[in-house]
Amino acid sequence: MPVHHFNLNDDTVSVEAPEDTPLLWVLRDLLGVTGPKYGCGVGVCGACTSHLDGGAFRPCIQPVGGVAGRRVTTIEGLGGEGLHPVQQAWIDEDVAQCGFCQPGQIMAAVALLRRNPDPSDADIDAAMSDNVCRCGTYVRIRAAIKRAAWQLRREGMGK
C-alpha cells in the first residue's frame, strides 16, 4: 500500500492508504482529525470543508493521492495557539445551534475573507451557498462573517 506524505495543520504526516481513499476518511479514521464532518460524501453539503494550499475544498471527494506534498488545514489547525477571528466571531454572534456544520462553515468563511476582505451580503450568500446548515443559522453566519471581516481589517490581517 502506498505511503502519502503531506502537511496537515503545519505538521508533516505520512499515512498508508490506497491512492483513491477519500482524504476525509484518512483524516478522520487514520489520523484522528475529526473536525471535518461526514455529511454527504459527494461534496455538496460542505460539512467537511477544509483548506488545500489555502483554498476551500471538500476532502470527502479528494483522493489522498492528490494531496502529496500539499498543505491541508482543518478546523483544528485554523487558529494556531488561539482562536482565529472567524472562530471568535462565531462565538460572539452565537452562530452554532446543533454545531454539526460549523467547522465547514467556518473554513468556507475564512476562505471567503482571504479572497474578499470586505464582502457584501450578496458576496457572503454566494460564497456560503454550498454549505448547508440544517438549523438555518444563515443570518447569524452572515453576521459573524461581517464581524470577522471588520476585525481582520482592523487588525490588518486580511489573510
Automatic annotation (TrEMBL):
<dbReference type="InterPro" id="IPR051452">
    <property type="entry name" value="Diverse_Oxidoreductases"/>
</dbReference>
<keyword id="KW-0560">Oxidoreductase</keyword>
<dbReference type="InterPro" id="IPR036884">
    <property type="entry name" value="2Fe-2S-bd_dom_sf"/>
</dbReference>
<dbReference type="InterPro" id="IPR001041">
    <property type="entry name" value="2Fe-2S_ferredoxin-type"/>
</dbReference>
<dbReference type="InterPro" id="IPR036010">
    <property type="entry name" value="2Fe-2S_ferredoxin-like_sf"/>
</dbReference>
<keyword id="KW-0001">2Fe-2S</keyword>
<keyword id="KW-0479">Metal-binding</keyword>
<keyword id="KW-0411">Iron-sulfur</keyword>
<dbReference type="Pfam" id="PF00111">
    <property type="entry name" value="Fer2"/>
</dbReference>
<feature type="domain" description="2Fe-2S ferredoxin-type">
    <location>
        <begin position="4"/>
        <end position="78"/>
    </location>
</feature>
<dbReference type="InterPro" id="IPR002888">
    <property type="entry name" value="2Fe-2S-bd"/>
</dbReference>
<dbReference type="Pfam" id="PF01799">
    <property type="entry name" value="Fer2_2"/>
</dbReference>
<protein>
    <submittedName>
        <fullName>(2Fe-2S)-binding protein</fullName>
    </submittedName>
</protein>
<keyword id="KW-0408">Iron</keyword>
<dbReference type="InterPro" id="IPR006058">
    <property type="entry name" value="2Fe2S_fd_BS"/>
</dbReference>
<dbReference type="InterPro" id="IPR012675">
    <property type="entry name" value="Beta-grasp_dom_sf"/>
</dbReference>
